[in-house]
Amino acid sequence: MLEAGNNDDLPPIPGKRYFTIGEVSDLCGVKPHVLRYWEQEFPQLKPVKRRGNRRYYQRQDVMVIRQIRSLLYEEGFTIGGARQRLQGEEARSDVTQSQQIVRQLRMELEEIARILRR
User: Fold this and answer.
1) Which one-letter DSSP state was computed for residue 19?
2) Does the residue 13 lie in any domain?
3) Which is the most buried residue in 34, 74, 84, 86, by most CB within 10 A?
């Protein structure tokens, strides 16, 4: 869902837990001041802030940034349109995840009921 298809020209995301704003800038092909602006515009972007307000992005943040970049630069969305698109995808993802949790709970409850019947 998050990995946009038009990001083939970008380097692969290393297997690190946290990335600095400079690293994310290089990984996503976006300048640091643009990343800081996008944090204000897209609620999905919430990097961890440590001492001196240093930002540390996680892998999921990098994938979201790549998707935002693709929506804005390659697909021609406006900031508002990209925000709506991301929120719509997030809502669909939440529904799917909730359905999976309900299925898992149902299976566990059925298993408990079978054990209790014995």
Assistant:
1) E
2) no
3) 86
